[in-house]
Each structure stands twice: as structure tokens, then as C-alpha cells.
Design a protein that fits this description.
The structure holds two protein chains of two kinds.
Chain A (H helix, E strand, L loop, with lengths): L2 H16 L5 H8 L3 H13 L3 E4 L3 E4 L1 H24 L5 H8 L5 H7 L13 E2 L4 E2 L13
Helix pairs in contact in A: 1-2, 1-4, 2-3, 4-5, 4-6
Chain B lengths: L12 H28 L6 H27 L7 H15 L4 H28 L8 H28 L1
The chains are: A mainly alpha, B mainly alpha.
């Protein structure tokens, strides 16, 4: 997943959580980057017609942006579910975040053929736990940081 | 939501081992799917596809062994093939191709996906200045060779598809 997709996924989750435009500060916090870096990427997303910036309010994804963000979120869910259920990784959230930049969508699609993802994905993603709400993990649940 | 680091690269043995394990699973998926297709193809009707699938399964098994040798050098377990095979079995009915064209297309996806995976992995390792427990040159050479074989696989399948 490339950097733009990581931003789109984050903006989508924040705007869903806040039920309105996502503030640059929230986006920067969620991605652990400086507000200046966040602003720069938001500008690029605007140029590509994927996001719209509303002065003093924040960023809102366009319809095209939402489609790509949902695809990115789905890819992320596949990686988490694959790590937790196929490889039995206990710290699957941390590892999914570490690996998402190196795992391409096409690779995730192939991994998707052996996991049991729910049809409602990615609407089942729970930002509070940073994981799919339907994900059944064999081991004791890991506390969210 | 928990903070993430954007575009983080491979920085440790553990991360490298996990990515190599994912490579092994991908190869296992390719191998198991090719076997399924192989069993479903009537050899007398289509010797060309049968040979293509047999070669693909054999090549995946070989790649898997080379990846296993690398992760053994990192002191990490491989991935149990039997379990992956039963997962492929359990899901195959839902995702299997309908006909010969579908089988070839699925095989093309296999080869392209594997190529993309190794290409991203090689790039990420090249961009990283981390020191790994396995020899860096051996690691990169192995992965570049496998990547090259996947690229050849893409060409072979494409050629068969274009001819038919």
C-alpha cells in the first residue's frame, strides 16, 4: 500500500469517527507525522480529485477518494486477518501497521483467497480497537495501545 | 485509532522473516491452486495447460524451499504447508476458475502477484540500511533470481493466452 493510500484510509476512518471533515491535526496524529507533512499530502490528494479541503473545517474525501480509501481499508483488514488467523501472530495490529507499506493490493487479494473475511468488510472495521470487529482471534485479545 | 508510521521500511530480522513467511504462503497458494487446476484438466484435451500447471507447481515448491532456507538462517520457523493446503481446499470452491481461460487467467494472477511481491520486497530491502542475520548479498541474490523466474512465468502464461 503506498503512502497516498495510507492517508486516504486514515482520513476515511477519522471522518467516519467524527461524522464530518477530518481535521489536519487528527490526521497527522493518527499517522504520527507532522501537520506540515499531512498538509503536503492532503494537497496532493486534492490535486488528484480524491479529497477536498474546507477552510477551518478540515478534509473530506470525494466519492472517488472514498472508493480508494475503502479498498485500502479492506487491504489492511486482509493483512490483519491473515496475520492473526493464518500465521497466528499475536501482535497482529502492530505487525499489520509495519507491513502495510510493503504489501501490495494484488498480494493482499491473493492472501484473501485463504482467509474467511466477512461480506460486510470494511464496514466492520472498528477504529477504537484498530481492527475488524468480526475478527476472531484464537489467543487472548491484545489490549489496544 | 492507533498512530502508524507512514511508509515504514524493513528494519529488523523479525520483519524480514515475516515477509519471507508471507512469500512462502504465496508460493504455497500458487502450488496448491495449480495442483487443483491440474487435477481438473483433462490431459488428453489440453496437454499444454497441463504441462504449464505442472511446471508452475514445481517452480513454486522450489521457491518455497529457497525461502525456507533463508528464514532458517534467521532462526524462524517456516509455515506449515498442510495447514495452508487445507485452507486453500476449504476456500477453493468459492474462488475456482470456471474454464480453461479462467485457469490461465488465475495462473497469470499467481505469477504477477508473486512478481509484485518479490519486486516490492527487493526494493524495500535495498532501501533499508538494517543489518540482518542472513548475508545481505545472498538474500538479495535469492530474491532477485526468484523475481526473474516469476517474470518469465508471466511471459509464458501471456504467450499461451495470446496464442489461444
Amino acid at each position: 500500500m503506498n503512502t497516498a493510500d495510507q492517508y486516504l484510509k486514515t482520513i476515511y476512518v477519522v471522518q467516519e469517527q467524527e461524522d464530518g471533515p477530518a481535521s489536519t491535526g487528527s490526521i497527522a496524529d493518527a499517522l504520527d507525522v507532522s501537520p506540515a507533512s499531512a498538509n503536503e499530502m492532503i494537497g496532493k490528494l486534492e490535486e488528484r480529485g480524491l479529497a477536498e479541503h474546507e477552510k477551518y473545517k478540515g478534509v473530506r474525501l470525494t466519492d472517488d477518494g472514498i472508493i480508494r480509501a475503502r479498498d485500502a481499508l479492506q487491504t489492511y483488514c486482509i493483512i490483519e486477518r491473515f496475520l492473526a488467523n493464518v500465521l497466528g501472530v499475536e501482535e497482529f495490529r502492530e505487525e499489520a501497521r509495519e507491513l502495510e507499506a510493503v504489501i501490495d493490493d494484488t498480494v493482499a487479494d491473493r492472501l484473501d483467497t485463504i482467509i474467511d473475511r466477512q461480506p460486510e468488510c470494511p464496514d466492520c472495521f472498528d477504529p477504537e480497537t484498530d481492527a475488524c470487529a468480526c475478527l476472531e482471534v484464537a489467543m487472548a485479545p491484545v489490549e489496544s495501545e | 485509532m492507533v498512530a502508524v508510521s507512514v511508509s515504514q521500511r524493513i528494519g529488523s530480522d523479525d520483519q524480514l522473516a515475516r515477509l519471507l513467511q508471507i512469500g512462502i504462503v504465496l508460493e504455497e497458494v500458487v502450488e496448491a491452486r495449480a495442483h487443483h487446476h491440474y487435477r481438473g484438466v483433462d490431459a488428453e484435451l489440453d496437454a499444454e495447460i497441463e504441462a504449464l500447471l505442472a511446471d508452475a507447481a514445481e517452480e513454486s515448491a522450489d521457491h518455497r524451499e529457497r525461502l525456507e532456507s533463508l528464514i532458517a538462517g534467521l532462526g524462524v520457523d517456516s509455515v506449515p504447508f498442510d495447514e495452508i493446503e487445507s485452507l486453500v481446499d476449504a476456500r477453493y470452491g468459492r474462488t475456482k476458475p470456471e474454464d480453461f481461460d479462467g485457469i490461465l487467467y488465475d495462473q497469470l494472477c499467481n505469477e504477477e502477484t508473486a512478481y509484485k511481491f518479490y519486486d516490492d520486497l527487493v526494493e524495500a530491502i535495498e532501501a533499508s540500511d538494517a543489518e540482518f542475520s542472513v548475508d545481505r548479498e545472498r538474500l538479495l541474490e535469492t530474491l532477485r533470481t526468484i523475481r526473474e523466474e516469476e517474470a518469465e512465468g508471466v511471459s509464458e502464461v501471456t504467450e499461451v493466452m495470446e496464442r489461444r
